[in-house]
Design a protein that fits this description.
The structure holds two protein chains of two kinds. Chain A is an alpha+beta fold. Chain A contains 13 helices and four strands. In chain A, strand 3 and strand 4 (107-113) form a beta hairpin. In chain A, helix 1 (21-29) packs antiparallel against helix 7 (157-182) and helix 3 packs across helix 5 (122-138). Chain A is globular and about 45 Å long. In chain B, strands 1-2-4-3 form a four-stranded mixed sheet. Chain B has helices at residues 9-12, 19-25, 28-39, 42-51, 63-75, 110-115, 118-133, 136-149, 154-183, 186-194, 200-205, 215-223, 227-236, 242-256, and strands spanning 55-56, 83-87, 96-99, 105-109. Chain B is 63% helix and 6% strand. The two termini of chain B are 25 Å apart. Chain B contains 14 helices and four strands. The longest helix of chain B has 30 residues, at 154-183. Classes of the chains: A alpha+beta, B alpha+beta. The A-B interface holds A 48-49, 51-53, 55-60, 62, 64-66, 91-95, 114-115, 117-118 and B 90, 92, 194, 196-199, 202, 205-206, 214-215, 217-218, 221-222, 225-226, 229-230, 232-234, 237, 239-244.
Amino acid sequence: MARPTQRISFPSLEISDFIHPREAEFNSNSQLKGFSGLIDTANALCVSIMETLVKGTFVMATPETQPRVYDILRNVMRILNYKGLPPTIFISHKMLSDVSPCGTDSQYYITVPDYVLKTFDDDMLYYALGNAVSMLKAGHVKHATIAAFIPGNAWTFALKKPFLDLIHAADATSDRGGLLACQSFAAAVRCQLVELGMPAEQTRTLFTSDEEAELFVSDYLDAVNLRRNENNITSIKLVRIWRDTMFIEAAGNTMLEELWLWYRSEDGYKSLLQKNIGNGR
Amino acid sequence: MPVKKVFSENEFRHSLDADSAKKIVQSSAVETVMRIISENDLERIYDYIYKSSSVRLTKEMAPDIIDTLEQVCEMFGLSEVPEIYVQWSYEKDDNIMICGYSAPFIVISSQYLDRLSSQMLTGVLAAQVAGIKLEHHKTMFLAWVIELATQFNKGIQLIASGIINQWKRFRHYSCDRAFFLATGDLSLTLQYLLIDTLDQNAVDLMHPGKINDQYHHQIRAFEEVKPPMKAAQYILTDKSWIPDRYKEVEAFCRGRR
């Protein structure tokens, strides 16, 4: 589908408009239901522990010192109809692509690695910040923060698993939010490829349009599925269980596939765009 | 460039970067421990960890860097110019380090070196040379030995780490003063505290040391962090708190006017 020439806003966008069905189902049946007070308290404790590190070693960005980032953040909030207080941006010195929100309802932060600021173009930054703002909008930042503090071992498996199940489902929702914010499938795929380990500069050589990106992902997933079918199905399943238990991030190729399917489906991304086509910048 | 002055330790040693650390290093008990360590080649192992993953810079390879290093050694009265090695690392903690015990050396990351102007490099090397002059490398080596020796008793390790981590933070105050003395430039000294996170354009927009210094917002935000949580991090990590260093540099410069 042709990319809109100007980014479209979604003035009445709700999470239910783009939530992944797995997350919606999880929200209905979660083991974490009924523990919201405890989760809020645990999150507040985690955030207060991190606060010294964030404010003491990262650099707080302001609209004066990082105008590009704050302009994009403001636009993303408007595009995604996020009505909360603008989060404060902190810049860390890391060679990572994780743009991570954290905080409490009274104040949220988004930490942005300097690697992202140096190597992401505007479209990619729209995606990354859109992903982060979607997490704030969906209300699962707290779960991600708590999960990050729970060590991953056999003793904590039972405690950590419900958080990871939610986060892995929620990742797909926030990826959709990122795409809605940037409205460039090519940029969204480039961000996913950076997360999979490719240098940002190199992703620009792979494709230049959304159509090319769609074909690239299709070929990539064909190759992944071919390897899956060649290998022992049982061992693949075991590896996936191990992976989903040990890592906060969901498997990169799974996330790419989820986003690609939603981008292509008639009642997904395209439908939302069509409904709001007159709402330009 | 002729060296204008030789700075004495009293001009840059911070009161919290105590003289007591140097006295501990020079005590007979520590000398005995270090003799045992040397006889068992542990110092060589420690040095090898760093030297094996980096490249030594020589005058032929990097004449400007070596010349600057020699000049700052003269400025701080360090008679033996330490070796300098470069490695690739994107970790902030690896940007620049002083290592070794009996023969200290400097390790700097290449991506950090790329960010530094020649004036900034003078200050950065001055900070390390000052640290060597104050024998920080010896105290850090001993800290490493203590952390190894106490790992089987987590309670003692926690207490030891808390004390060591606080000293590791305070030693930066002395090194930052040396940066200022070597360059004579408050704004540059404050930029030095931000340059490992931001590029120069972004640092310039912070207006460090000027009347509209944007970093003061963060200093206020850091002061508002709850004391018990700060105290927990003070014990658990050796990371230096930039807001505290920023205030210390500003106070030092005000005191010299």
